[in-house]
Recover the amino acids of this structure.
DNA sequence: CTTAGGG
DNA sequence: CCCTAAG
């Protein structure tokens, strides 16, 4: 906000200067329409355009605007709070009033620090911008009219800013005169009518400026934000609550889709209420501002909340496009951010200026995305509904994690991320079993850190597995709103071995330790998973006596776990004194005999 | 956050 | 696996 004010303050002056030089010399057939209102609008736009051109950022939402403004502030290294700005401006104007400063001086007085630098910069940009717009054959009528208006109005400003302005040889506008004729008190009244709040400012000029601005933009100077697309102004955003014009609650969201194409921007501008307002002003140029003032003042309405705005835009979209909102919209709205926003937000992090398709104005406009969304990573609930794969991050992470992608047997058909064309490994468990079963069996005490090949293979598998899990199975939406986790990731033998090994090393219960040291490569398998698995292992090892012959009613032995492992598990269970619990848990049907004996027996069997 | 235990 | 109570 503040930046807008400050920026306008300084840029206005600059604008005036440059414009004065430029237009004075060649100031040709200037329309004698010298409506300050029009000028204000134009000026504001011009200023903002240059402003945003500097940084190449385009605000789209409130937050984004804030950010942009912050950037602007950084860029200009001139930070002023709203009040500061206001005060400063007022003082500067005061000075002007009394000491007849030139516009340049005014600028200096209000924005001392960056005066020269900014001026040069902006001058260049202005010269670049103005001729561009005027010379561009694609320019629409609005554009031209804008330029037409700019010139005379610049002069108006000149005469306005300094009472002895550089170029006082331009007649004032009716509106301006009217305002001029008002007393401070009247101006204050007008201000109140315009902005709906009292003002104690006694500076005439400031009041006039504010009023004119308010009339033009129907919002506080400090809260008017503009949306630029490709350097083209395409819309403005009203930030303040109190001053949003009820007519254009969505105008702020409007933006052009044609990137950098002036025509598109113009079109959008015209399509929006904002644009229409502009045209109105253009056509109405010459109207006394007092009328306007009253009219506008009466209309001023409290700005809807952000969410309300979005809803409005949605409505607008429906009406205009007759394109029903996606079903996901609802939830997205609930998340206080539009779905398109969310979706494109991700892509935004890669490009310089990313635009997000927005529905505002029903023009399928693209709004630049700055950084509003994704305060936090989209969590469970959203993910599935937005169709968005949360994998991007995880995916990349995994990819980087994987030393080399390796041409693993990619038989899977689940291509998750087109970008990273990663395919699910078809039979992770099986393959792994094949690979490591022997190792696990033979070198049962495979040491802590997986062997080289083992680790590599595991890592790769993990990569894939992780990707898979993160991608498609990370969270599965449940009808009732619950989210369940991935598909059962069967415990592979190697995993079991690792687990047992880890338990033997660290002891049961140190699951986090085990996970860290023995399952470092298996990013899935939380410590809880380990615990659960261990519990199951214990149960299995005690409950299912692989021993006896007739003891196997279920032929497809549900315990693919090799006996040695079970034995080991038992041993460990003994060591950890978990036997009792296990036995208790296993419904006492076990042979409660001395575990050691039984164990020995079993070990003999196995 | 980690464990332990029930579901 | 999920969930949750308990440290």
């Amino acid at each position: 906000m503040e930046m807008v004010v400050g920026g306008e303050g300084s840029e206005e002056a600059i604008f005036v200067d440059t414009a004065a030089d430029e237009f004075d010399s060649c100031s040709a057939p200037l329309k004698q329409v010298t409506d300050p209102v029009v000028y204000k609008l134009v000026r504001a736009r011009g200023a903002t355009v240059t402003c945003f051109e500097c940084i190449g950022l385009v605000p789209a939402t409130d937050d984004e605007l804030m950010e942009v403004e912050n950037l602007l502030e950084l860029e200009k290294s001139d930070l002023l709070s709203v009040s500061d700005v206001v005060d400063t401006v007022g003082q500067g104007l005061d000075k002007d009033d009394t000491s007849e400063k030139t516009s340049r001086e005014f600028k200096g007085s209000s924005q001392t620090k960056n005066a020269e630098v900014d001026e040069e910069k902006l001058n260049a940009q202005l010269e670049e911008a103005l001729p561009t717009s005027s010379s561009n054959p694609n320019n629409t009528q609005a554009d031209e009219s804008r330029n037409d208006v700019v010139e005379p109005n610049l002069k108006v400003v000149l005469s306005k800013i300094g009472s002895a302005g550089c170029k006082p040889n331009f007649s004032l506008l009716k509106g301006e005169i009217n305002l001029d004729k008002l007393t401070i008190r009247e101006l204050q009244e007008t201000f109140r009518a315009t902005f709906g709040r009292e003002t104690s400012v006694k500076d005439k000029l400031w009041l006039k400026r504010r009023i004119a601005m308010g009339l033009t933009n129907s919002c506080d100077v400090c809260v008017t934000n503009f949306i630029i697309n490709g350097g083209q102004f395409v819309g403005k955003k009203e930030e303040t609550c109190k001053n949003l014009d009820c007519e254009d609650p969505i105008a702020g969201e409007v933006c052009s889709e044609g990137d950098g194409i002036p025509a598109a921007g113009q079109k959008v501008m015209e399509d929006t209420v904002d644009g229409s307002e502009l045209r109105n002003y253009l056509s109405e140029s010459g109207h006394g501002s007092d009328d306007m003032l009253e009219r506008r003042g009466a209309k001023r309405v409290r700005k809807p909340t952000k969410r309300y705005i979005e809803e409005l835009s949605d409505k607008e979209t429906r009406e205009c496009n007759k394109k029903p909102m996606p079903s996901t919209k609802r939830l997205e709205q609930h998340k206080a951010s539009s779905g398109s926003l969310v979706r494109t937000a991700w892509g935004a992090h890669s490009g310089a200026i990313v635009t997000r398709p927005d529905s505002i104005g029903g023009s399928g406009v693209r709004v630049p995305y700055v950084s509003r969304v994704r305060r936090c990573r989209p969590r469970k609930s959203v993910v599935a509904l937005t169709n968005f794969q949360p994998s991007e991050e995880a995916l990349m992470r995994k990819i980087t994690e994987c030393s080399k992608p390796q041409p693993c047997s990619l038989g899977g058909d689940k291509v998750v991320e087109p970008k990273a064309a990663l395919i699910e490994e078809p039979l992770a468990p099986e393959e792994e079993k094949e690979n490591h079963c022997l190792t696990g069996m033979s070198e049962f005490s495979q040491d802590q850190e997986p062997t080289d090949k083992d680790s590599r293979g595991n890592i790769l598998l993990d990569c894939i597995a992780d990707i898979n899990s993160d991608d498609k199975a990370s969270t599965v939406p449940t009808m009732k709103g619950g989210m369940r986790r991935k598909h059962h990731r069967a415990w592979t033998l190697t995993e079991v071995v690792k687990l047992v090994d880890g338990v033997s090393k660290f002891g049961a219960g140190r699951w986090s330790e085990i996970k860290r040291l023995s399952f470092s490569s298996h990013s899935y398998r939380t410590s809880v998973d380990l615990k659960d698995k261990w519990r199951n292992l214990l149960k299995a090892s005690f409950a299912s006596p692989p021993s006896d012959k007739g003891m196997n009613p279920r032929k497809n032995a549900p315990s693919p776990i090799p006996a040695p492992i079970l034995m080991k598990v038992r041993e460990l269970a003994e060591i950890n004194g978990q036997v009792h619990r296990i036995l208790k848990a296993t419904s006492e049907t076990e042979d409660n005999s001395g575990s050691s004996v039984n164990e020995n027996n079993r070990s003999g069997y196995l």
